[in-house]
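Figure 2 data, in text form.
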Amino acid sequence: MKILLISDIHGNFPALEAVEQQVKDESFDLIINNGDLTVYAPFPNETIDWLRARDAISILGNTDIKVLRLLEGKKLKKPQNAEKRIMYTWTAEHLTPENVKYLSEREKRVRLDLEGHCVGLFHGSPVSDNEHLFYDTPTTRFRELTKKTDCDIIIIGHSHSPFHKKINGVHFINPGSVGRMFDKNPDASYCIVDLTPERVKVKLFRCPYDIDKLISKLRDNLMPPVYEDMYRLGRKLN
């Protein structure tokens, strides 16, 4: 089984399009999206339409959950930063009814049985949707997390940090962020996983995309200029 594994698109459809173009000669049995479909880039509908059309398995990320809270008429306590709040409210105001429905039907966590493997999808970690796991997170923490689930493959996102580790017989896979990397390289990040009952083969990739197309849309919608710098530099600036 060949899987296209993506996460943290954050409404950046030009980056998602570029990933699709880069893998156009590949054939996938499954597409998995590990949360944060929305917020920060102004293409939430195009992003969700793409996922829906391909029957991707998607879970909710923290930004998606906050958008749903706004759509339910609730107020957000976080983020307090005005430049961030604008991005949440804009997304909630612009989602189509079909995509609101799609988002509201997603789960925070999903368990899959694939090729004899138990695959757990967690946006942050098996114990917290908001935990940030990085390549250099202490091994002791990963060992602790292997005891919190019976899955032998744990797929995570949220930290925008691509890595693959095998600890205590458990694979931790983070494909990084399609739409909003913070490592000073703005290129999209994604992962291809080849599964057999005996093997878990993981390859991480980066992909350039049309940042000017994204910037033009940000300007058209009068979004805070800090995001232009953020996307061009591949850095978190607020």
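Caption note: The radius of gyration is 17 Å.
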